[in-house]
Design a protein that fits this description.
The chain is α/β, with parallel strands linked by helices. The protein is built from 9 helices and 12 strands. The strands form 3 sheets. The protein has a 5-stranded parallel sheet with strand order 2-1-3-4-5, sandwiched between helices. The chain has a 4-stranded antiparallel sheet with strand order 6-7-8-9, covered by helices on one side. Strands 10-12-11 form a 3-stranded antiparallel sheet. Strand 3, helix 3 and strand 4 form a beta-alpha-beta unit. Helix 2 runs parallel beside helix 3 and helix 7 packs across helix 9. The longest helix is centred in the middle third of the chain and has 15 residues.
Length: about 230
């Protein structure tokens, strides 16, 4: 998932970014309302986390402006406990309201709940290629019934290949296909991550049969898969 945090608290961003990354979520940051609106309207995010108390332009106004242009799920964050703030935020189009302080685990659970309600088709995506099963919403992949211990980026790369099983995914398009275009790495780094995925699939590094390399082009996931 790609999540945008609009909040002037840089320390909160640092804390959430690490936790979210461990759960396959990339967190982006905008330190104020105007830059948050610019980010949210210039690219696609799965959800927006929006602080109410910010200088210059508060979160309620940001929410109003975002809703005029986008249906992206919005979760409001606030240290205020006043019921009127929650009511106004929800009436302006916010999907949920989480009071500070909160745990990162609870916040991620609330985000996933909002996404299940707003995008059930996406969140319920299940991929199957032979004996390979990928639960996109649960971030779980199994091969022959055995769980694969994948990092967030490895999971996204494997899911991207599974969506186009039997077809070549160009190396320079791998991150974009995986929904990780924000990750700035070289094509050589992509090769390294693919080699890690192969190892976890039990694929032969010298003569791979699951993820095959099309020299000079990219990678293709074989349609008929089973654990070696």
């Amino acid at each position: 998932m790609q999540i945008l945090l609009i909040d002037d608290d840089a320390r909160l961003f640092d804390l959430l970014r690490t936790f979210f990354a461990d759960h396959g979520v990339t967190l982006h940051h905008a330190p104020d309302g105007p830059r948050g609106i610019a980010s949210a309207t210039s690219r696609t995010f799965d959800a927006v986390l929006l602080d109410v108390m910010m200088p210059h332009m508060d979160g309620l106004e940001v929410c109003r402006r975002l809703r005029a242009h986008s249906s992206v799920p919005i979760v409001m964050l606030t240290a205020r406990g006043d019921e009127s703030d929650r009511v106004v935020g929800l009436e302006l189009g916010a999907d949920d309201y989480v009071p500070k302080p909160f745990s990162a685990r609870e916040l991620l659970a609330r985000i996933r709940a909002v996404l299940r309600r707003s995008r059930p088709d996406v969140q319920a995506e299940m991929l199957q290629v032979g004996d390979l099963h990928i639960d996109v919403s649960g971030r779980v992949a199994t091969l022959g019934g055995v769980d694969l211990d994948l990092t967030g980026l490895e999971f996204d790369l494997l899911a991207a290949l599974a969506r186009r099983a039997g077809r070549v995914v160009p190396r320079d398009a791998m991150l974009g296909e995986a929904g990780r275009a924000d990750v700035k790495v070289s094509e050589r780094t992509v090769d390294v991550h693919i080699s890690h995925v192969r190892a976890k699939l039990g694929d032969d590094s010298k003569s791979p049969r699951i993820i095959k390399t099309v020299r000079g082009v990219g990678y293709v996931l074989a349609k008929n898969l089973g654990r070696a």
